[in-house]
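Sequence in, structure out. Go.
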Amino acid sequence: MSIEYHDCTFLNGVNASFISELFAKYLENHNAVDSSWHQYFDLLNDDIKVANMDLRGPSFATRTTKIITAVDSSAPEKALEKATVVNPQWTDSALACSRDSLRASMIIQAYRVNGHLKANLDPLGLKNSSLHPELNPETYGFTKNDWNRPIFINNMLGLERTTLSEIMNVLESIYCRSIGVEFMHIQDLAQKTWILERIEQQGCKINLTPIEKKIILQRITAAESFEKFLAIKCVGVKRFGLDGGETLIPALEQILIRSSELGLEEAVLGMPHRGRLSVLCNFMNKPFRAIVAEFLGKLEYTDQIGDVKYHMGFSSNREFNGINVHLTLNSNPSHLESVNSVVLGRVRAKQEQKKDKLRQKVMGILMHGDAAFVGQGVAAETLELSGLHGYRTGGTIHIIINNQIGFTTDPQHARSSVYPTDMGKMVLAPIFHVNADDPEATVHVARIAAEFRHKFNADVIINIICYRRFGHNETDEPRFTQPLMYEKICHHQTTREIYVKQLIDEGTLDKQEVDKILDEEKSHLMQEFEYGLTYKPGKADWLEGAWSNLKSTSGEGARGNTGVDIKELQRIGAKLCDVPKGFNLHSKLNRFIASRKKAIASGEGIDWATSEALSFATLLTDGFMVRLSGQDSQRGTFSQRHSVYIDQKTEKSYIPLNNIQEKQANYEVINSPLSEAGVLCFEYGYSQAEPNTLICWEAQFGDFANVAQVVMDQFITSGEKKWLRMSGLVLLLPHGYEGQGPEHSSARIERFLQLCGEDNMQVVNCTTPANYFHVLRRQMHRDFRKPLIIFTPKSILRHKMAVSKLEEISGSTTFHRVLFDDRLMCEDKEVKRVIICSGKVYYDLYEESIKRNINNIVFLRLEQMYPFPREVILHKLSRFPQAEIIWCQEEPANMGPWTFVDRRIEDVLIEIDGMCKRPQYIGRPISAAPATGSAVRHTNEQAALVNKALTLNLKKFNNV
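Output:
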């Protein structure tokens, strides 16, 4: 018989670890097990081999013992049958006893897996309570007559010899009361064992002191009173109240209490609309007077455009049992789940700032609505990041505020799974379901979750099953769509009322004490409300801590000091070309490095990748960290970067940028998962917390950014104005028409330009490696931070003309917002045409003009499209008042920069001669798709637009 080892599996329905433990005891001492097992094990002993290994069974502590399991899954049953035939003295009662033990083991295992399906989780009692067959003893052959017969279960559930009746009572009390646990899907034995011991050893015993119970009541009272007070004072105003989910407040506090005891110093939170105002006031300690002022229409800070109340964030310090914890609730837009990985990025940045390598000092807490968590793909992307090297934060505590409804959508129409939390199984996270009307159970689960996260640095999910006392918002009528649910809610006691009755009945508090707690809360709210009527918003305190050396600014200038001493560039460049001795480099990389070394030594032919490497390297030696993440960013999508060398024999890695000098900042380059929205949210969150790191996200192709449009629209471009939160995030978006089809041509320049306003970001389309070098360094060498969108090239990564000299990035050189190409110039008065363009099309135009020997056309390259460099354009065009002005682009007329630049160039032209004069458009015609999928058609289109730009009689041209 072949032998195999299993992790607590079933052999034909029999618990292998249960048999194994009994057999191990039997081998040590026959008398250590019940005599009814002796002949069974005597027969098995001839067929089953014994091996030394770690015991694998969730019922037992981790220790080394002898364990056996057989591939022949029917062996135990066959052995029992064989025993009765070979040995008649094996009595029917002994056989029944053995079978009872095996069956009892199966029931215990079934409750561990599916007990949550029978738990009392729904406060409204609307759930179908039909018994799951695996939780029915009759499924395993027990009858009503078997409930009181002694059964040997070998210390499972802490019981040695017991009855089915007692087993069922214990299982029901552990797995089927107000808490339901899902953990048997976890593959990590230590995690699974820890949860099982934590659950089964304590069982249903939630030991809270009278003081702890009183505190829970105080927090629930505060939460309920807050909502009722606003409902009276602000009738008909949306607040997305927490009514029905008030236990969230004591649950959050318990997480912080326990986590702070375990070393937590800071927590970053993200949450949806529902309950945010209560969390701000009752957990974050935001003054109620400030919230009242917001209801009256006053912005918290006078220099922000603001957002609705239930989108706003807040920071504060709270003390838990003498331990201070800094709390940050992240602002977020209506795409609620997008904030998930924003929070995690922020957590990661703060962990790096605190040098928190164990990831115990800073933690993320994410709250979700049930419909949004399971419905929004970014939630799954966030979970996927949890265990990845470049994104892990040591585990996140996820709390589902389970309303059992979406806006008006029932769960059966909103998801295909039993619970919204089932998605958490993709990362093998433990899941705790709890009835929100049992505050003590909710607090108990919160404590377990905090301890699990601390011990295993892994995600954990709490599903607080509650209800929404009113509609989606307070002005909504939920009975239109859920009449039966809301008929139930209408007559359902509040959580506070239920808990008050419990505390009075058990003698923990009397009615007078309960009333005092309520009266004190009402008095506090009324006093704060009066203060709120005259509350004056304070000065913004958003540039503190790591941001204290920065300031708010606007305008098209501020070049920054970006040039570097040429000797320093050569020194750094030489280090970038070093390879460790004995490192087995790919043969093509030898040529790559040799070419780079030659360019740096000669000061000529600096290509795009070398320029980028030098910009990163000089920032690192300046003390700024650099973080670059994206799909295949280590090598680069176009095999241009090679930030990480891989030994061809060992696959060990070497990163030249981390080996420039002894004292330098760290360079982190990460191959991200195939995620745009989740990863870009993460990097944005990182940039919210860390102004001294160049943080870059790179799309594999620029059009991939489409999937993350929410992040751009609602966070990156508007976050500073809405929430007073700067970001210096850099987006690298490959863009250019090379005949690669509609989805690999355009980074949708027009969309970003449409989002530009109030100096909210920078949009550039560099055509030289030198300008790329400067714009990256400029990002850090200024006293403010703005998002930077860079449309990076593809074909001109290796274009023979797209190279720079070392002297163009050394000394006092800086970024040029407009490049004036006068290599073909005649006298100013002889210039017939000025072609303004941006990006790769310049090289097509220039090369063709050389072929045709054209010398009366001037090219202006718009390197920075926003903020629009009006003064520079005005200065250049003023030299050629007689010239025709055209705008040339590769993109269709309804795409690209045209619809953004046309009016701005027109304004410049009007100022020059006082007459209404528009630039003429040359490019592809209006199109539904960004580009053709035919390489031949692309070539013809490109040749045609270049020809028109260089030869067309513009006087007869009809404007697009």
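Check: The longest strand covers residues 884-892. The chain has a mean pLDDT of 88.
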